[in-house]
Specification:
Blueprint: H1 7-17, H2 22-32, H3 35-52, H4 57-64, H5 68-80, H6 84-95
Length: 96
């Protein structure tokens, strides 16, 4: 299932692109999302990082506390998704 493209989502993404610092991200996302939603997104990104580095499902689950279903979903996105995780992980690797 693809994310629908529409004006509301475009405006949301443009608002995120307009942020200039980590502090601005903290301020905006604290208003925009619940703490639980932000923590879940951060956790999924960490799961993607670990899977991309070859970690086992069990190690990822043990280290992050996420469910095996979430690990599986992130793995499917890494393997068959739109490429968003890979793009970010590649950029992180290039920045190191």
């Amino acid at each position: 299932m693809s994310l629908p493209k529409n004006e509301s989502i475009d405006k949301l993404f443009r608002s995120i692109l307009s942020l200039d610092s980590l502090e601005e991200c903290y301020l905006y996302f604290e208003d925009l999302c619940t703490v639980k939603e932000i923590l879940a997104m951060a956790q999924r990104l960490e799961v993607a990082r670990m899977l991309a580095n070859g970690e086992s499902y069990q190690k990822v689950t043990d280290d992050t506390g996420v469910s095996s279903a979430t690990v599986g979903r992130v793995k499917r996105c890494l393997d068959y998704g739109s490429g968003g995780y890979r793009m970010i992980l590649d950029r992180e690797d290039a920045a190191e």
